[in-house]
Write a structure and sequence with these properties.
Elements (H helix, E strand, L loop, with lengths): L11 E5 L6 H9 L12 H13 L1 H8 L6 E3 L2 E11 L3 E9 L14 E5 L1 H4 L12 H4 L9 E4 L3
Antiparallel strand pairs: 1-3, 1-6, 2-3, 3-4, 4-5
Length: 155
Amino acid sequence: MTSGDTATPSGCVALLAPDLENLSGFEAALAAGWSPDPRRAGDQAYIGGELQRLRQDKLKFLDDLSPGDSQRTVSPSPRTVLLFWIWDGEFCGSINLRFLQGTEQLPPEVSGHVGYSVVPWKQAQRPRHRSARPPARYGGKAGSHPPRRSLRRGQ
């Protein structure tokens, strides 16, 4: 499913790995004032800096967003962060899964396993759905990235 995909079923929400083909939706959201970090919502200096970084080198920006299977080190604790874009036929926001590689634990300085930010113009359309817990092999065990996930509004 990409930004050019017109066959998106109505009400379908998917998680996509960040890619060059869909980067324009992320860029448009930044240009409209959205922050991928909810702690920095409304911080125009941060948002403008991210937009400038993206426009200077799109491939490097994507590479920085998606470290692949590499681990990010926070304090002395290595943690893995898997980032996805929320997509319903167009860009809706981003979500990330955080965990210590090979465990279901988090370092004490990390507030939770899941973080997300939805663009303001999609928040009123936010679907109600059952709590989705990522499979242990993606959220707590070593392994490859999960395949694209789809959720239907109302689930």
